[in-house]
Amino acid sequence: MKELSRRRVRGLQTHTVQEGRATCYACLRPTSYCLCQEINPFYAHCNVLLLQHPNEWRKYYSTAKLVKQSIVNSALLRGVVFEERVLHATLGDTEPVLLYPGPSSIDCEELPLDERHTILVIDGTWDEAGKIVWRNPMLQKLRRISFHSTLTSRYRIRKQPRRGYLSTIESVGHLLKLNAQAFGKAHYNESYDRLFAVFERMIEKQLAHLGETAEARV
Ligand SMILES: [Zn+2]
Description:
This protein is of the alpha/beta class. It has one domain: Alpha/beta knot, CATH 3.40.1280. It contains 7 helices and 6 strands. It has a 6-stranded parallel β-sheet. It starts with a helix and ends with a helix. The site of zinc ion has 6 residues, from loops.
């Protein structure tokens, strides 16, 4: 925790001193990228553990950060190799299920989930996610869950590397929503729609920012 605090402080100094921009002290993003006002946190019907590849965390538009801020019963660990001791401590006595495709993966509408489960979601590109699974034998042993239906990303900024790719916040939103609907928990829909709403705001902000940059160049 102390180490994390020091890193956060260094991050703040980077933004304020070198870039000369105002920083939001809650999310540590420059205020022009901050979405804290848009976030209305809620409890999900199962727990969520985000495993973030180190390349993702400095991005101002990391959608995993938005998931972490939005879902009260979520946690985020950062790294490529995760100590099993740390994973076990984070999971507590919940049953872990890995959101990852594969021949043995179960469709998210076929596996009932509740507060006794934790969904592990890898935040990174497909290559980074594959590397994380490969480097962590504990993850390879977990039951897998995935979407069998084709979903299209609303992400208009970053080019999607592959058909069927979704941002982390969209993946979590779809998983929770489809699962809740399939097992009589549709009353969670309103909460889960907030994930898509905050994602849309993020895209709007990003497009506005790109517009400003383009104008400044003219
Ligand atoms: Zn903020």
